Known about the structure:
It is a single chain. Helix content is about 30%, strand content about 35%. By secondary structure, the chain is of the alpha+beta class. The chain has two domains: about 1-110, Aminopeptidase (3-Layer(aba) Sandwich); about 115-289, no CATH class. α6 crosses α7. The longest helix is centred in the C-terminal third of the chain and has 20 residues, at about 235-255. It is globular and about 55 Å long. The relative contact order is 0.12.
Amino acid sequence: MSIDVRPLSTLEEFRHCEELQERTRGTRASSVWSVAQLSQVRESGGLLLGASESDHPGRFHGVLVDIIAEIDGYPARETVVLDVAEDQQSRGIARLLRAHERAMLQKLGVDLCFWDTDPLRSRDLLLELDQLGAIATGHIRNALGVLRDTANEGLATDRLRVEWWLDSPRVTAHLDRGRPLAHHEMRLHEMSVLTHSSAAASGLRRLVRVEGPPAQRVILIEIPEDLDRVRREDPELATDWRLQTRDLLDDLFKRGYVGVGLIHQGERSFLIFEYGTRRSVLAASSATS
């Protein structure tokens, strides 16, 4: 069956949006946006999208909510909700929601959308940096305080600031012309790995050493391949990943690096950082241009 994406505007649709958040985050999650809040988003000019089966439009498999925002005085939209039902994760619904969001924002003349992402969530970062062409421009420690929901319980809410410049050469070459991002064509010897990990009998990896300072233009840092599995099987290990990577991330951004991608090698995940400015990274239209 096909998935349809449509704007949300009625109280009934807002209730379905709230229900999906409760299914994915937990019924008592403090991070759920309520019907009243969603109605206010709509009234203030925000964007609300729902994804559902074409023949069952009343039950959402995915939802996206943007509010009006700015970065350093530059007009933008900020994504505050992007949830996909657990049993629908493999259908590309998040990417489809982002595609509709981009088209609608372009019609409005908005060329920047941003959001905050857990720097240890490889699945989300693969979509955002590698598939959408967004970039990571900063790191915030415990950005949201304590969140009692299924994705954050027991772990500090450190976040990467992710910026999606919808009409930049980087994004248009990748999404509109199908060209690979520059780091896709790089060989491993052209990158420097700053982290060293070891595998336990369970298969979970532990970060054992961090190198520094970075010496190459492109560097890699390892993050968990599946953060939720680590949190579920070894909460102390999840906390250790958080504490060991936060200083490294802070230092990389201070030194002028920008997050540009994520790669999987075997069952391991590595964030890719490139030395340069926001402008220089966004101006790089492709690996072959």
